[in-house]
Design a protein that fits this description.
The chain is mainly beta. It has a single domain (about 1-125), classed as ApaG domain (Immunoglobulin-like), CATH 2.60.40.1470. It has strands at about 1-5, 5-10, 15-20, 35-45, 50-60, 65-70, 80, 85-95, 100-110, 115-125. The strands form 2 sheets. Strands 1, 2, 3, 4 and 8 form a 5-stranded antiparallel β-sheet that branches. Strands 5, 6, 7, 9 and 10 form a 5-stranded antiparallel β-sheet that branches. The protein starts with a strand and ends in a 7-residue tail after the last strand.
Amino acid sequence: MHQRAFFYKETNGFRVTVHPTYLVAESDQHIGRYVFSYTVRIENCSRIIAQLRSRDWTISDSVGEEYHVSGEGVVGQQPILQPSDVHEYRSFCVLKSGHGSMGGYYTFTDSDNNDFEVLIPVFLLTIPDLPIQ
């Protein structure tokens, strides 16, 4: 397992920080299977209460493939975040190359039933010491 940098972005009073990691033991370069995990930390820096309703991701790799993933909540949860609350979760993604990226947004609903987006920073999924192509 190799550690990588942190990526963060703040939108509408919510800060999203992502820490990706390359999983050597789960990957097999001979068959084009590159597994990355990522930990996401969502902080409510605003004064409102909001619930994370859905996620929309764009995942791309250096072989030119791009995937769009949408769904309810994150890892089966739709957390309600009070001011200064933090929600953290871990997930993973499998690429066909050793270099790619992910990014997107969460849709939240506030206590007045207004929807708003919180951006997920674009973050790199790269094998350590692999030249970027």
